[in-house]
Backbone:
């Protein structure tokens, strides 16, 4: 499970969150393992059942006023019970100054105590985004991540099949690249997959056989690069196999499972004469239509089945036989001409 020490968190976010360390410096080596934050309401009153002590504790104006009442009544036993757990750290918002008793207990329990100049809602939003980026489950995938028409497309395939060349053609056509060769994929809350470069050293660089390593940002400008993108479509390139039957209608649905999240997948055969960049553009546009509930293949199948279910047209009624007999008798049984003997 990913983890983050309180010291690392303080070093990286002290400026953004306007943090100041007040007590518990000896506990900076404690680890933060949970993305969610906790507002300790009932826990400050001594009700510790279901207390989420493993989360970062955020104290706002309401909790701060209650702690002041406790210290005025000389009832600090509940604060000691509250801080006996191995809580990662405590953050007070609105630049609220804690009572001396809380500072002393934090030092004794070695629980880092911070004060922030941000409002509670802003602190929670900022800190949640930071912890989600740091602690979300992640894996690395061999492939190329590009954004085509606003849709994150993960291109995979065997080495040397042309993934980087295809991405280069997409960049020339006005699309953006996120990462080449190795993509770090994170599972964010809500079933969202975020892809980014796996290493800062290879960020915005591509390896093209015959050319070497190129800097996309210097060649094409900042409009051709992205730091991260949501992955919404996976395209797998494979060499064309004459013995294999490929989908020609579009009714087959494929998917790629990454970190428990399924992403629509297209298996695209490669052979000379196929413009892969154009095909990937069309696949991205088609996926956007599917996400809006429009599926051309399914609609065509539905219309075809509807036409097949219609009854066959009936033949026009034949004229009555008596009418034809009367017509023939009038034409063939008239008076014969007189013949001289």
Residues:
């Amino acid at each position: 499970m990913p983890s983050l020490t309180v010291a690392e968190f303080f070093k990286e976010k002290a400026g953004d969150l306007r943090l100041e360390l007040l007590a518990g410096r000896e506990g900076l080596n404690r680890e933060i393992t949970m993305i969610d934050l906790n507002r300790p309401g009932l826990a400050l009153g001594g009700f510790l059942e279901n207390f989420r002590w493993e989360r970062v504790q955020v104290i706002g104006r309401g909790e701060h006023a209650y702690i002041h009442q406790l210290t005025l009544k000389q009832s600090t036993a509940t604060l000691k019970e509250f801080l006996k757990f191995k809580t990662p750290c405590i953050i007070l918002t609105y630049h609220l100054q804690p009572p001396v008793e809380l500072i002393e207990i934090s030092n004794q329990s070695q629980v880092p105590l911070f004060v922030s100049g941000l409002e509670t809602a802003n602190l929670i939003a900022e800190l949640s985004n930071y912890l989600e980026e740091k602690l979300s489950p992640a894996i690395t995938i061999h492939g190329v991540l590009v954004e085509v028409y606003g849709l994150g497309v993960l291109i995979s395939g065997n080495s040397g099949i042309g993934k980087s060349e295809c991405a280069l053609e997409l960049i020339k056509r006005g699309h953006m690249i996120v990462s080449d060769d190795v993509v770090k994929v994170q599972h964010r809350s809500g079933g969202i997959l975020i892809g980014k470069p796996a290493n800062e050293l290879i960020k915005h660089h591509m390896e093209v056989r015959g050319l070497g390593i190129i800097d996309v940002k210097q060649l094409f400008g900042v409009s051709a690069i992205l730091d991260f993108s949501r992955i919404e479509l996976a395209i797998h390139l494979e060499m064309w196999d004459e013995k294999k039957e490929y989908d020609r209608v579009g009714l087959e649905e494929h998917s790629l499972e990454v970190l428990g999240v399924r992403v629509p997948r297209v298996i695209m055969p490669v052979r000379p004469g196929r413009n892969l960049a154009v095909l990937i553009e069309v696949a991205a546009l088609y996926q956007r239509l599917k996400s809006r509930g429009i599926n051309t293949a399914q609609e065509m199948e539905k219309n075809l089945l509807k036409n097949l279910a219609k009854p066959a047209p009936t033949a026009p009624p034949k004229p009555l036989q008596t009418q034809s007999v009367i017509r023939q008798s009038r034409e063939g049984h008239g008076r014969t001409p007189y013949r001289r003997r």
The chain has two domains: 4-135, 138-297.
